[in-house]
Design brief:
This protein is an alpha+beta fold and 248 residues long. The protein has two domains: 90 residues; 143 residues, Immunoglobulin-like. It contains three helices and ten strands. Strands 1-2-3-6 form a four-stranded antiparallel sheet, with no helix packed on it. A four-stranded antiparallel sheet has the order 5-4-7-10, with no helix packed on it. Strands 8-9 form a two-stranded antiparallel ribbon. It is elongated and about 50 Å long.
């Protein structure tokens, strides 16, 4: 049987190595030094980074202030341009509106219906009225006219003085009351002549009449048709009188 023989020196050396291993030994000290060195390097790297961030914030604030100033200047310029443009636009629109405004002209033609005793006066006409009357659609040659009339009725007969008895010449054809335009006449601020009864006394107002073809001067007529006398075998003959609307 053989035996392994350890010398005293060998045993002491082994014991020393075991003791160093249990305490961490000299090999671990450099590792700790490396960790400290890495921490120091990281700290040195972070410091410049913080300075860079502060510089970036400062630059950003400066740029923001500059941009805000430029934005305000641009906004002021845009506001001035907008106001100038608005004035020009308003002037143009004002010119168009002025050109399209209604114009009143005096007529003052009076006549008396001898059969009924009615005194009829064509007082004036308001020409070139804006309108949404259906016949005016896409018709630049047309014209809406508000004819002002006044009536002092006689005391011989009853009945009404009709708005349909007032006519204007439309290219050689007589046309009368534009029935669907009375609302826009009222909305425009005119008093509507609605065919008052003779028994109600004097009456005045405006009658809308639309012409598909107009002119500088316009001929018109009041035509009271033949009337039958109730309870009698007799009639009242037609009455006709003419007038003219001057140019606006």
């Amino acid at each position: 049987m053989s035996r392994t023989i350890f010398t005293r020196g060998t045993v002491l050396a082994a014991a020393t190595m075991l003791a160093l291993s249990a305490c961490g030994g000299a090999d671990e000290a450099p590792a700790e030094g490396e960790r400290n060195a890495g921490s120091t390097t990281s700290t040195e790297d972070d410091a410049p980074q913080a300075d860079a961030d502060e510089d970036t914030d400062t630059d950003t604030d400066t740029d923001t202030d500059t941009d805000a100033t430029e934005s305000e200047d641009s906004s002021d310029d845009a506001t001035e341009d907008s106001e100038e443009g608005g004035d020009e636009s308003g002037s143009e629109e004002g010119g168009d509106t002025s050109a399209a405004e209604a114009a009143a002209v005096e007529i003052g033609t009076e006549f008396t219906d001898e059969e009924t005793g009615d005194v009829i006066t064509v007082v004036s006409a308001t020409r070139h009225n804006p309108t949404e009357y259906d016949m005016a659609t896409d018709n630049p040659e047309g014209e809406m006219i508000y004819l002002e009339v006044a009536v002092t009725p006689g005391d011989i007969y009853g009945g009404v003085v009709s708005q349909r008895d007032f006519y204007l010449d439309d290219g050689g054809e007589l046309v009368n009351y534009a029935a669907s335009a009375d609302d826009e006449l009222i909305d425009a601020g005119y008093e509507y002549f609605d065919g008052p009864s003779r028994r109600d006394g004097e009456a005045t107002g405006y009658i809308p009449i639309y012409l598909e073809s107009t002119g500088d001067t316009i001929k018109g007529a009041y035509v009271r048709p033949e009337m039958k006398i109730l309870g009698e075998d007799a009639t009242v003959p037609e009455f006709r009188a003419e007038f003219e609307i001057p140019a606006a």
